[in-house]
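Exercise: predict the fold of this chain.
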Amino acid sequence: MLFRKRKKICVNVKLLAGLDQKEAYNTEKGIQLELKENTRLKKLIKTLDLPTDQPISFIVNGEKAKPGDSLSDGDEVFCFLPFAGG
């Protein structure tokens, strides 16, 4: 059986609403990540060492996403803690 090496993809991640307090985070540029093809958002949480004890919301290319969703090359990912106001 031959194993096909998974291609690499590049995504840009923006951290917002409290998550942007990570050390050395550039709020203008975000974080450019090279990941394996079909990486899921939940893997991104581990890769960036985001808190696992708080709910994190994701927007990928302007659409709400779930942790089980896969990423594609060129995706723009926004991660933020949910907030409410009045």
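Check your answer against the key: The CA atoms of residues 34 and 46 lie 14 Å apart.
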